[in-house]
Design goal:
mainly alpha, 2% strand, two-stranded antiparallel ribbon, two-stranded antiparallel sheet, single chain, binds protoporphyrin IX containing FE, Cytochrome Bc1 Complex, Chain C, 4 strands
Length: 425
């Protein structure tokens, strides 16, 4: 897909390098001459935004680690000292804490873009699955990072989440003990979570390299979802995609900066400014916003299903909600990629989006709260049902019964037709 390399080393040192380590050629082929579909919209800039956020998280995280103490008696105070005593410490910490939320906002836009335009379909299955792996690693990294300030939500969140593992028969208890390094969340938990929290972003960076490699083998999808047919359908990555990426990165930074400078604690929980206390359970334990839909799915299963008790059922449903994404390339049976040409899919997709937001809301309230005359947990059951039905019933069936709209012959034809139509007005 990337075609033949057009890189020609011009200088003597360039030629010398080329014969030994053709790294400049690699960079040129990936970020300069790489043919990009000419119709990409702003949603295709989020991969670049994610790459930038990963760098921001690693750099700010390394600086935080210089001042942070992963010892349960001093962890909370060391974070306060970062905020008050370390030069610019408040900025580094707010950048890192809000950066995690920004990372998830960007990844959800990136994932939903893929869901709408069918970017997971052949030949992009591996690219998609690598994305799902990155998403899982991101969740693990965020969860462990949240434990480090050793506040009330850190402690009780860690207690609740690691307790899920005990639902698994036989292996559950040993896994939980290994994870927390004892019989309850304590100093050993904090030590290992710090160690793993430091490691995971580098693992993510490794999988991102594979992700981008896979992308460059199969090429980018585009809003029309049709294959690139000739050179007329593409433009070189630089300057076209690079300038667009830079513009959207700057806009995203402004959005991110607004949170950091004006609402730095809006996305956090006030209870995390109270030091962890194993003897005082908070009235309402809630995970960070980006985990809420999955938390709602976990709590929706409050009944036994045959031999599977409600606790194990909830845990299986929660992990199943993520695992199902990995099978999506084979669950969606439609040959047409882009949602633009799929009238029924479009409706099911938007309902799925609203349902995912609603699940997030349900994850934030108490299960017995009344919403529109019905208990939150009953709503969560309906929403969970739709979540799974979308992947396991709607998408497999739609491929057979839906009549897609006619596809354009090529990307270039579609663009010319659009500009002819707009100049006729
Ligand atoms: C650290 C996280 C991630 C980084 C840095 C990253 C990076 C990128 C980049 C640079 C691109 C090309 C530009 C673009 O299409 O926006 C891309 C494309 C893609 N990514 Fe990711 N990604 C990440 C996470 C994910 C996740 C979690 C998924 C799915 C579960 C995913 C699925 C895809 C797919 C399917 C494409 C191809 C899209 C297309 O061409 O239509 N990525 N990614």
């Amino acid at each position: 897909m990337s075609g033949h390399s057009t890189y020609v080393p011009r200088t003597a040192i360039g030629k010398w390098f080329e014969a030994r380590l053709p790294i400049v050629r690699l960079l040129h082929d990936t970020a300069v001459s790489y043919p990009t579909p000419r119709n990409l919209n702003a949603l295709w800039t989020f991969g670049g935004i994610l790459a930038m956020m990963l760098v921001v998280q690693i750099v700010t995280g390394i600086v935080l680690a210089m001042h942070y103490a992963a010892e349960s008696h001093v962890a909370f105070r060391s974070v306060e000292s970062i905020m008050r005593d370390v030069n610019w410490g408040w900025l580094i910490r707010y950048l890192h804490a809000n950066g995690a939320s920004m990372f998830f906002i960007a990844v959800y836009i990136h994932i939903f873009r893929g869901l709408y335009y069918g970017s997971y379909k052949a030949p992009r299955e591996i690219l998609w699955i690598l994305g799902v792996i990155i998403y899982l690693l991101m969740m693990a990294a965020a969860f462990m990072g949240y434990v480090l300030p050793w506040g009330q939500m850190s402690f009780w969140g860690a207690t609740v989440i690691t307790n899920f593992f005990t639902a698994l028969p036989i292996v559950g208890q040993p896994i939980q003990t290994l994870l927390i390094g004892g019989f309850s969340v304590d100093n050993a938990t904090l030590n290992r979570f710090f160690s793993l929290h430091y490691l995971l972003p580098f693992l993510i960076a490794g999988v991102v390299v594979l992700h981008v490699w896979a992308l460059h083998v199969v090429g980018q999808n585009n809003p029309l979802g049709i294959d690139v047919k000739s050179e007329k359908d593409t433009v070189p990555f630089t300057p076209f995609a690079t300038s667009k990426d830079v513009m959207w990165i700057v806009l995203f930074m402004i959005f991110y900066g607004w949170f950091v400078f004006y609402q730095p604690n809006f996305l956090g929980h006030p209870d995390n400014y109270i030091e962890a206390n194993p003897l005082a359970t908070p009235a309402h334990i809630v995970p960070e916003w980006y985990f809420l839909p999955f938390y709602a799915i976990l709590r929706a299963i409050d009944f036994n299903i045959g031999p599977i008790d409600s606790k194990l059922g909830g845990v299986l449903a929660m992990f199943g909600a993520i695992a199902v994404l990995a099978f999506l390339p084979w669950l969606d049976t439609s040959k047409v990629r882009s949602g633009r040409f799929r009238p029924i899919f479009k409706v099911a997709f938007w309902v799925f989006g609203v349902n995912a937001l609603f699940l997030g809301y349900l994850g934030s309230v108490k299960t017995d709260d009344i919403i529109g005359g019905m208990q939150a947990v009953s709503w969560a059951k309906l929403s969970t049902l739709y979540y799974f039905a979308y992947f396991l019933v709607i998408l497999p069936v739609l491929g057979y019964i839906e009549k897609p709209k006619p596809l354009p012959v090529s990307i270039n034809d579609a663009i010319l037709a659009k500009s002819a139509a707009s100049s006729a007005h």
